[in-house]
Amino acid sequence: MQLLQNIDACKQTIAAMQEKDSPGQSPSTTRAPKNHATASGVEPTPNVQPLQGGFTVQSLQDQASALKRKAWANSTTSTYRTHMKTYLDFCDHISVPPLPATSKTLQLYATYLAKVKCFKFCSIQQYLNIIPHMHKLCDLSDPIPEDYQLKYLLMGIKRELGTAQFPVDSITPSHLLRMRSFLDFSSVEDSGFWCACLIAFYGLLRPGTIAITGPFEASKHVRRVDLMPCSWGYLLCLRHTKTIQFRERELNVILPQVTGEMCPASALQAYLHLTRGADLFGPLLLSGKGSVFTYSIFRQKLHSILVQAGIDDSNIKGHSFRRGGATWLSRIGVPVDQIKAIGYWSSDAVLRYIDPHFSSLLDTMVLFGKSLPNAK
Q: How many CB atoms lie within 10 A of CB 13?
Protein backbone atom coordinates (compact mmCIF):
# COMPACT_ATOMS: atom_id res chain seq x y z
CA MET A 1 0.00 0.00 0.00
CA GLN A 2 1.37 3.39 -0.98
CA LEU A 3 2.07 6.01 1.66
CA LEU A 4 -0.69 8.34 0.47
CA GLN A 5 -3.14 5.44 0.41
CA ASN A 6 -2.29 4.81 4.05
CA ILE A 7 -3.06 8.46 4.77
CA ASP A 8 -6.40 8.16 2.95
CA ALA A 9 -7.23 5.03 4.95
CA CYS A 10 -6.30 6.89 8.13
CA LYS A 11 -8.59 9.80 7.19
CA GLN A 12 -11.44 7.40 6.44
CA THR A 13 -10.93 5.73 9.83
CA ILE A 14 -11.10 9.09 11.58
CA ALA A 15 -14.26 10.06 9.68
CA ALA A 16 -15.88 6.72 10.59
CA MET A 17 -14.96 7.20 14.25
CA GLN A 18 -16.37 10.73 14.25
CA GLU A 19 -19.66 9.48 12.79
CA LYS A 20 -19.72 6.70 15.38
CA ASP A 21 -19.14 9.24 18.17
CA SER A 22 -22.08 11.35 16.94
CA PRO A 23 -24.92 8.87 16.32
CA GLY A 24 -27.59 11.57 16.29
CA GLN A 25 -25.89 13.53 13.59
CA SER A 26 -27.61 13.53 10.25
CA PRO A 27 -25.67 12.08 7.33
CA SER A 28 -26.29 15.36 5.56
CA THR A 29 -23.83 17.10 7.93
CA THR A 30 -20.97 15.27 6.23
CA ARG A 31 -19.31 17.71 3.85
CA ALA A 32 -20.34 16.91 0.28
CA PRO A 33 -18.28 17.68 -2.81
CA LYS A 34 -18.43 21.34 -3.69
CA ASN A 35 -20.91 22.18 -6.48
CA HIS A 36 -20.91 25.04 -8.95
CA ALA A 37 -24.16 26.88 -9.61
CA THR A 38 -24.98 27.36 -13.28
CA ALA A 39 -27.84 28.89 -15.21
CA SER A 40 -29.33 25.45 -15.72
CA GLY A 41 -29.01 24.34 -12.12
CA VAL A 42 -26.20 22.78 -10.07
CA GLU A 43 -23.32 21.03 -11.75
CA PRO A 44 -20.98 18.74 -9.72
CA THR A 45 -17.22 19.07 -9.92
CA PRO A 46 -14.68 18.01 -10.92
CA ASN A 47 -15.51 18.75 -14.53
CA VAL A 48 -15.26 15.55 -16.56
CA GLN A 49 -15.48 17.41 -19.87
CA PRO A 50 -12.16 18.03 -21.64
CA LEU A 51 -10.92 21.58 -21.12
CA GLN A 52 -8.67 23.62 -23.39
CA GLY A 53 -5.63 21.50 -24.22
CA GLY A 54 -7.53 18.20 -24.01
CA PHE A 55 -7.26 17.63 -20.24
CA THR A 56 -9.89 17.35 -17.54
CA VAL A 57 -9.89 18.31 -13.88
CA GLN A 58 -9.97 14.62 -13.00
CA SER A 59 -6.92 13.89 -15.16
CA LEU A 60 -5.03 16.72 -13.44
CA GLN A 61 -6.02 15.38 -10.04
CA ASP A 62 -4.79 11.92 -11.03
CA GLN A 63 -1.49 13.35 -12.27
CA ALA A 64 -1.11 15.45 -9.10
CA SER A 65 -1.55 12.31 -6.99
CA ALA A 66 1.02 10.47 -9.12
CA LEU A 67 3.52 13.33 -8.74
CA LYS A 68 3.03 13.40 -4.98
CA ARG A 69 3.90 9.73 -4.83
CA LYS A 70 7.27 10.63 -6.40
CA ALA A 71 8.06 13.30 -3.81
CA TRP A 72 10.12 10.97 -1.64
CA ALA A 73 12.74 8.48 -2.70
CA ASN A 74 11.70 4.82 -2.56
CA SER A 75 13.86 4.23 0.50
CA THR A 76 12.32 7.23 2.30
CA THR A 77 8.81 6.09 1.40
CA SER A 78 9.56 2.61 2.71
CA THR A 79 10.92 4.05 5.96
CA TYR A 80 7.93 6.36 6.42
CA ARG A 81 5.57 3.48 5.69
CA THR A 82 7.17 1.46 8.50
CA HIS A 83 7.00 4.42 10.90
CA MET A 84 3.38 5.10 9.99
CA LYS A 85 2.34 1.48 10.42
CA THR A 86 3.97 1.37 13.86
CA TYR A 87 2.08 4.47 14.96
CA LEU A 88 -1.27 3.37 13.50
CA ASP A 89 -0.93 -0.10 15.05
CA PHE A 90 -0.17 1.48 18.43
CA CYS A 91 -3.23 3.76 18.23
CA ASP A 92 -5.38 0.81 17.20
CA HIS A 93 -4.05 -1.26 20.12
CA ILE A 94 -4.95 1.38 22.72
CA SER A 95 -8.19 2.36 20.87
CA VAL A 96 -7.46 6.04 20.24
CA PRO A 97 -7.81 8.01 16.99
CA PRO A 98 -4.40 8.56 15.36
CA LEU A 99 -5.30 12.03 14.06
CA PRO A 100 -5.42 14.61 15.41
CA ALA A 101 -2.97 13.27 17.98
CA THR A 102 -3.47 14.41 21.55
CA SER A 103 -0.65 15.18 23.95
CA LYS A 104 -1.53 12.07 25.95
CA THR A 105 -1.34 9.86 22.84
CA LEU A 106 2.05 11.31 21.87
CA GLN A 107 3.47 10.78 25.35
CA LEU A 108 2.19 7.21 25.51
CA TYR A 109 3.63 6.49 22.06
CA ALA A 110 7.07 7.91 22.94
CA THR A 111 7.08 5.82 26.16
CA TYR A 112 6.04 2.75 24.16
CA LEU A 113 8.94 3.24 21.74
CA ALA A 114 11.39 3.64 24.62
CA LYS A 115 10.19 0.94 27.02
CA VAL A 116 8.42 -1.66 24.88
CA LYS A 117 10.23 -1.40 21.54
CA CYS A 118 13.52 -0.58 23.32
CA PHE A 119 14.54 1.88 20.59
CA LYS A 120 17.53 4.19 20.80
CA PHE A 121 16.79 7.86 21.38
CA CYS A 122 17.64 8.79 17.77
CA SER A 123 15.22 6.12 16.51
CA ILE A 124 12.45 7.43 18.78
CA GLN A 125 12.90 10.89 17.26
CA GLN A 126 12.71 9.43 13.76
CA TYR A 127 9.55 7.44 14.53
CA LEU A 128 7.90 10.54 15.99
CA ASN A 129 8.75 12.55 12.85
CA ILE A 130 6.09 10.74 10.80
CA ILE A 131 3.32 12.21 12.95
CA PRO A 132 3.79 15.83 11.73
CA HIS A 133 3.83 14.53 8.12
CA MET A 134 0.56 12.68 8.68
CA HIS A 135 -1.08 15.78 10.15
CA LYS A 136 0.11 18.10 7.39
CA LEU A 137 -0.97 15.69 4.64
CA CYS A 138 -4.42 15.71 6.23
CA ASP A 139 -4.45 19.54 6.49
CA LEU A 140 -4.06 19.41 10.28
CA SER A 141 -1.65 21.45 12.37
CA ASP A 142 1.52 19.81 13.68
CA PRO A 143 0.90 18.95 17.36
CA ILE A 144 4.51 18.34 18.39
CA PRO A 145 6.26 21.78 18.47
CA GLU A 146 3.83 23.24 21.03
CA ASP A 147 3.63 20.13 23.23
CA TYR A 148 5.79 20.93 26.26
CA GLN A 149 4.76 17.74 28.07
CA LEU A 150 6.11 15.65 25.19
CA LYS A 151 9.31 17.70 25.11
CA TYR A 152 9.68 17.23 28.88
CA LEU A 153 9.18 13.46 28.49
CA LEU A 154 11.74 13.26 25.67
CA MET A 155 14.29 15.03 27.86
CA GLY A 156 13.82 12.25 30.44
CA ILE A 157 14.09 9.53 27.77
CA LYS A 158 17.24 11.16 26.41
CA ARG A 159 18.83 11.28 29.86
CA GLU A 160 17.98 7.63 30.54
CA LEU A 161 18.98 6.19 27.17
CA GLY A 162 21.75 8.57 26.20
CA THR A 163 22.53 9.59 22.64
CA ALA A 164 25.61 7.49 21.92
CA GLN A 165 25.59 6.00 18.43
CA PHE A 166 27.86 3.12 17.52
CA PRO A 167 29.08 3.27 13.92
CA VAL A 168 29.41 0.23 11.70
CA ASP A 169 32.77 -1.50 11.46
CA SER A 170 35.06 -0.56 8.60
CA ILE A 171 35.87 -2.95 5.78
CA THR A 172 39.66 -3.11 5.57
CA PRO A 173 42.00 -4.25 2.77
CA SER A 174 42.79 -7.40 4.78
CA HIS A 175 39.05 -8.16 4.95
CA LEU A 176 38.77 -7.77 1.18
CA LEU A 177 41.73 -10.06 0.50
CA ARG A 178 40.33 -12.76 2.79
CA MET A 179 36.93 -12.47 1.12
CA ARG A 180 38.52 -12.71 -2.31
CA SER A 181 40.04 -16.11 -1.54
CA PHE A 182 36.54 -17.61 -1.21
CA LEU A 183 35.24 -16.35 -4.55
CA ASP A 184 34.92 -18.30 -7.80
CA PHE A 185 35.91 -15.91 -10.57
CA SER A 186 34.48 -18.14 -13.28
CA SER A 187 31.06 -17.27 -11.80
CA VAL A 188 29.35 -14.11 -13.06
CA GLU A 189 27.77 -13.54 -9.66
CA ASP A 190 31.04 -13.87 -7.73
CA SER A 191 32.90 -11.72 -10.24
CA GLY A 192 30.17 -9.06 -10.09
CA PHE A 193 30.19 -9.18 -6.29
CA TRP A 194 33.96 -8.58 -6.21
CA CYS A 195 33.58 -5.65 -8.63
CA ALA A 196 30.86 -4.15 -6.41
CA CYS A 197 33.12 -4.46 -3.35
CA LEU A 198 36.05 -2.73 -5.06
CA ILE A 199 33.92 0.01 -6.61
CA ALA A 200 32.37 0.74 -3.22
CA PHE A 201 35.77 0.71 -1.45
CA TYR A 202 37.61 2.84 -4.01
CA GLY A 203 34.69 5.22 -4.56
CA LEU A 204 33.73 5.52 -0.86
CA LEU A 205 30.25 4.41 -1.87
CA ARG A 206 27.40 2.49 -0.35
CA PRO A 207 27.07 -0.79 -2.29
CA GLY A 208 23.37 0.01 -2.73
CA THR A 209 24.48 2.74 -5.14
CA ILE A 210 25.87 0.09 -7.51
CA ALA A 211 23.63 -2.92 -6.83
CA ILE A 212 19.97 -2.45 -7.67
CA THR A 213 17.03 -2.20 -5.28
CA GLY A 214 13.65 -2.82 -6.92
CA PRO A 215 13.08 -3.10 -10.67
CA PHE A 216 15.81 -1.81 -12.98
CA GLU A 217 15.32 1.81 -14.11
CA ALA A 218 17.66 2.92 -16.86
CA SER A 219 17.17 6.58 -15.93
CA LYS A 220 18.82 6.20 -12.52
CA HIS A 221 20.51 2.82 -12.07
CA VAL A 222 24.09 2.09 -13.14
CA ARG A 223 24.21 0.84 -16.72
CA ARG A 224 26.97 -0.95 -18.59
CA VAL A 225 27.42 2.10 -20.81
CA ASP A 226 28.13 4.25 -17.72
CA LEU A 227 31.48 2.47 -17.30
CA MET A 228 34.00 4.13 -19.62
CA PRO A 229 37.44 2.60 -20.39
CA CYS A 230 40.39 5.00 -20.10
CA SER A 231 44.15 4.70 -20.61
CA TRP A 232 44.61 4.58 -16.83
CA GLY A 233 41.67 2.27 -15.97
CA TYR A 234 37.92 2.94 -15.87
CA LEU A 235 35.69 5.91 -15.07
CA LEU A 236 32.24 5.11 -13.68
CA CYS A 237 29.58 7.80 -14.09
CA LEU A 238 26.78 7.74 -11.49
CA ARG A 239 23.65 9.76 -12.25
CA HIS A 240 21.65 8.87 -9.14
CA THR A 241 22.79 8.33 -5.56
CA LYS A 242 21.45 8.95 -2.08
CA THR A 243 22.65 12.57 -2.33
CA ILE A 244 21.98 13.02 -6.07
CA GLN A 245 18.27 12.46 -6.62
CA PHE A 246 17.24 15.27 -8.97
CA ARG A 247 19.80 14.86 -11.79
CA GLU A 248 21.52 18.04 -10.59
CA ARG A 249 25.00 16.63 -11.25
CA GLU A 250 26.94 13.47 -11.96
CA LEU A 251 29.39 11.61 -9.73
CA ASN A 252 32.53 10.24 -11.35
CA VAL A 253 34.28 7.30 -9.68
CA ILE A 254 37.93 6.76 -10.61
CA LEU A 255 38.87 3.07 -10.81
CA PRO A 256 42.57 2.95 -11.69
CA GLN A 257 44.77 0.20 -13.08
CA VAL A 258 47.16 -0.80 -10.26
CA THR A 259 49.25 -3.83 -9.46
CA GLY A 260 47.96 -6.47 -7.08
CA GLU A 261 44.83 -8.49 -6.40
CA MET A 262 42.78 -5.45 -5.38
CA CYS A 263 42.97 -3.73 -8.77
CA PRO A 264 39.47 -2.53 -9.69
CA ALA A 265 40.30 -2.13 -13.38
CA SER A 266 41.51 -5.72 -13.69
CA ALA A 267 38.44 -7.01 -11.84
CA LEU A 268 36.12 -5.04 -14.13
CA GLN A 269 37.96 -6.18 -17.25
CA ALA A 270 37.57 -9.82 -16.23
CA TYR A 271 33.89 -9.30 -15.37
CA LEU A 272 33.16 -7.54 -18.68
CA HIS A 273 34.76 -10.45 -20.53
CA LEU A 274 32.54 -12.93 -18.64
CA THR A 275 29.42 -10.92 -19.52
CA ARG A 276 30.37 -9.92 -23.06
CA GLY A 277 27.36 -9.42 -25.28
CA ALA A 278 25.20 -7.99 -22.47
CA ASP A 279 22.96 -5.01 -23.24
CA LEU A 280 24.96 -1.77 -23.06
CA PHE A 281 21.93 0.06 -21.71
CA GLY A 282 21.08 -2.69 -19.25
CA PRO A 283 22.40 -3.00 -15.67
CA LEU A 284 26.16 -3.00 -15.21
CA LEU A 285 26.20 -5.85 -12.69
CA LEU A 286 24.52 -9.18 -13.40
CA SER A 287 24.12 -12.25 -11.23
CA GLY A 288 23.69 -14.75 -14.04
CA LYS A 289 22.33 -14.98 -17.57
CA GLY A 290 20.62 -11.61 -17.85
CA SER A 291 19.44 -11.51 -14.23
CA VAL A 292 20.07 -8.31 -12.28
CA PHE A 293 22.60 -8.23 -9.44
CA THR A 294 20.40 -6.77 -6.70
CA TYR A 295 21.37 -5.26 -3.36
CA SER A 296 19.60 -8.17 -1.68
CA ILE A 297 21.92 -10.60 -3.50
CA PHE A 298 24.90 -8.46 -2.49
CA ARG A 299 23.97 -8.54 1.20
CA GLN A 300 23.40 -12.29 1.19
CA LYS A 301 26.69 -12.86 -0.62
CA LEU A 302 28.54 -10.53 1.75
CA HIS A 303 27.20 -12.35 4.82
CA SER A 304 28.04 -15.77 3.35
CA ILE A 305 31.60 -14.81 2.36
CA LEU A 306 32.34 -13.12 5.69
CA VAL A 307 31.20 -16.23 7.57
CA GLN A 308 33.36 -18.45 5.36
CA ALA A 309 36.33 -16.12 5.91
CA GLY A 310 35.85 -16.24 9.67
CA ILE A 311 35.14 -12.50 9.91
CA ASP A 312 32.60 -11.27 12.47
CA ASP A 313 29.89 -9.66 10.34
CA SER A 314 27.57 -8.58 13.17
CA ASN A 315 28.46 -4.91 12.65
CA ILE A 316 29.48 -4.90 8.99
CA LYS A 317 26.89 -3.19 6.81
CA GLY A 318 26.77 -1.43 3.45
CA HIS A 319 28.25 1.73 4.98
CA SER A 320 31.29 -0.32 6.06
CA PHE A 321 32.78 0.08 2.57
CA ARG A 322 32.34 3.86 2.56
CA ARG A 323 33.74 4.06 6.08
CA GLY A 324 36.59 1.66 5.29
CA GLY A 325 37.69 3.52 2.17
CA ALA A 326 37.68 6.88 3.95
CA THR A 327 39.61 5.45 6.91
CA TRP A 328 42.26 3.87 4.68
CA LEU A 329 42.76 7.13 2.76
CA SER A 330 43.25 8.94 6.06
CA ARG A 331 45.67 6.27 7.27
CA ILE A 332 47.95 6.67 4.23
CA GLY A 333 48.07 10.42 4.77
CA VAL A 334 45.47 11.79 2.34
CA PRO A 335 44.17 15.21 3.57
CA VAL A 336 40.58 15.40 4.75
CA ASP A 337 39.65 17.88 2.01
CA GLN A 338 40.76 15.37 -0.62
CA ILE A 339 38.79 12.57 1.08
CA LYS A 340 35.72 14.81 1.05
CA ALA A 341 36.18 15.38 -2.68
CA ILE A 342 36.58 11.67 -3.44
CA GLY A 343 33.54 10.72 -1.37
CA TYR A 344 31.52 13.78 -2.41
CA TRP A 345 30.94 14.99 1.15
CA SER A 346 29.74 18.58 1.32
CA SER A 347 30.25 18.91 5.07
CA ASP A 348 32.53 17.74 7.86
CA ALA A 349 30.34 14.65 8.26
CA VAL A 350 33.30 12.85 6.67
CA LEU A 351 35.04 13.02 10.05
CA ARG A 352 32.49 10.57 11.46
CA TYR A 353 33.57 8.02 8.84
CA ILE A 354 37.26 8.07 9.63
CA ASP A 355 38.41 5.72 12.37
CA PRO A 356 41.40 7.06 14.32
CA HIS A 357 44.35 4.68 14.06
CA PHE A 358 45.81 3.83 17.46
CA SER A 359 49.41 3.54 16.26
CA SER A 360 49.34 7.01 14.69
CA LEU A 361 47.79 8.45 17.85
CA LEU A 362 50.47 6.72 19.91
CA ASP A 363 53.25 8.14 17.71
CA THR A 364 51.72 11.60 18.08
CA MET A 365 51.57 11.38 21.87
CA VAL A 366 55.17 10.07 22.06
CA LEU A 367 56.25 13.04 19.94
CA PHE A 368 54.25 15.29 22.25
CA GLY A 369 55.98 13.84 25.31
CA LYS A 370 59.46 14.18 23.80
CA SER A 371 58.82 17.83 22.97
CA LEU A 372 58.24 18.73 26.63
CA PRO A 373 61.16 20.45 28.44
CA ASN A 374 63.09 18.59 31.16
CA ALA A 375 63.90 20.01 34.58
CA LYS A 376 67.38 21.52 34.84
A: 16
